[in-house]
Amino acid sequence: MRELSLHILDIVQNSLKAGSRTITIEVIEDLGLDRMEIRVKDDGKGMSKEISKGAADPFYTTRKTRKVGLGLAMFRTAAEVCDGYLEIDSVEGKGTDIKAVFRHSHIDRIPLGDMSQTISLIVGANPYVEIIYFHRIEDKEFKISSTSILNMLEETEDECSDSIWVKRDLLSEPKVISWIKELIKVEEEHIQEVSFGEISGRIKKDEG
Amino acid sequence: MKSVEELKKMRDEAKKMTRLRERGERMKIIVSMGTCGIAAGARAVMVSLVDEVAKRGLDDVVITQTGCIGLCDKEPIIIVESSDGERMTYGDITEENARRIVVEHVINGRPIGQLIIARD
After folding, report:
1. Does B2 touch chain A (CB under 8 A)?
2. Which one of A63, A116, A162, B93 has the largest count of C-beta atoms within 10 Å of its C-beta?
3. Which residues does A151 contact at the CB level (< 8 Å), separation at least 6?
4. Cα–Cα distance, A76 to B6 (Å, whole number)
């Protein structure tokens, strides 16, 4: 993949397939420690020890339609190529926690890329799953969730609108998905500007 | 970068649009979002679909995702499913022809034969 945000989109599909009700995506960038961490935590059906062991093996899959499962394998490679690693922590019946760590400044670390597209599409296509996204760069952070988005939708400045019942399937409305994307874009730009502005020249803006 | 005012306006627009919707679903567009699809560009395709449907003000179209279908070399793949059960699978989809499918097939009821890889 060309962006880490695409790996995240891919891993989240696993969480969805596992029947998760809540999926938490965390991106933590620590420039001082030269470390980037990406976590996808879910409360889906989890994996047995045996399946966990095979999960990042490209030639192992529980799917019946094909013989390969590349997502976790490729994500692990993406991390290891940057002096990093991928950890799979799963408890059957409880959920799965995928953690990928990268050396932030490694020349081969692919850019984080467009998280606004990734998150807005995940939220919009799965309105009944609670998606929580947290991104921290140094000391600047923001958090957004399906619920916080619904709360924002409930507010209105439009005097002539009668209050419509804001229910979860509103999240799958195309115009709302586009709006969520713009919202996240603004938050992302804000934490990048503030952090990277202070470190001129050394680290490029991570938009890919 | 959008200002807070622009975001508020966008939100109110989106809500207004939704009030009119009867929640009847005439068509469903399913985007294949397996690893193969994502690697081939499915995210951009889905963004284009969402944008086109929103732009055209279609209130009876739902866009959703699915996993790998098994036709990996034809990715990105989208399936257009109508409420009467008819399904058409399109392959080698780009941001450009995804929008064309919305206009030609979804709005005008004319599936694009050249792009179809399966139908039932």
Report:
1. yes
2. B93
3. none
4. 40
Give the predicted TM-score (pTM) of the model: 0.90
Contact (CB, 8 A) for A123 and A174: no
Q: Which residues contact B1 (CB under 8 A, 6 or more apart)?
A: A185, A186, A189
Yes or no: say if A152 and A40 are a contact pair by the CB < 8 Å rule. Answer: no
Selected residue with higher pLDDT from B23 and A8: A8
- Whether residue B54 is predicted with pLDDT greater than 60 in this model: the reply is yes
Instruction: Mutate one of A13, A156, A168 to test the B interface: name it (highest B CB count within 10 A).
Output: A13
A122/A75 Cα distance (integer angstroms): 18
pLDDT (0 to 100) of residue A13: 96
Q: Check whether A113 has a pLDDT greater than 60.
A: yes
Residues 6+ apart with CB under 8 A from B84: none
For helices A146-154 and A174-197, give the axis angle rounded to 10 degrees: 110
